[in-house]
Amino acid sequence: QVQLVESGGGLVQAGGSLRLSCAASGRTFSSYAMGWFRQAPGKEREFVAASTYYTDSVKGRFTVSRDNAKNTVYLQMNSLKPEDTAVYYCAARRTGSNWFSVRSVEYPYWGQGTQVTVSS
């Protein structure tokens, strides 16, 4: 079992940047596939990014990276837009670091979420 803690959210103006971090507990982090999701008010949770795969709306602006030595995955978000406003979650599944999924139901482990608000 793994526990996830996100950080790095906040309020930023359109065009700005934020870097989200997701720190995982445990000694087997490298065996987990990690995904980033977000949920805006009144909307369903949606896939954002995992490994080198990105949803179309964030391609070219967001970048995922991970540091297995620090048990941490990052989401660098540049050129932020008001429509990026949401609670961002990281998620994990123990399928090997490369076997991510875009489906939230396939991740058993979730962080508490971090709010990202982009003002226009």
Describe the protein in words:
With 120 residues, this protein is mostly beta strands. It has strands spanning 4-7, 10-13, 18-24, 33-39, 46-50, 53-54, 62-67, 72-77, 86-93, 109-110, 114-119. The strands form two sheets. Strands 2, 4, 5, 6, 9, 10 and 11 form a seven-stranded mixed β-sheet that branches. The protein is globular and about 40 Å long. The protein starts with a strand and ends with a strand.
Binned strand content: over 45%
Biggest sheet statistics: 7 strands, mixed
Radius of gyration: 13 Å
Question: SSE order, as H and E?
Answer: EEEEEEEEEEE
Taking the alpha carbons of the first and last residues, their distance comes to 40 Å
Categorize the overall geometry.
globular
Beta strand count: 11
Unreliable stretches covering 5 or more consecutive residues: none
The helix/strand class is: mainly beta
**Mean pLDDT over the full residue set:** 96
Helix content: under 10%
Total DSSP helices: 0
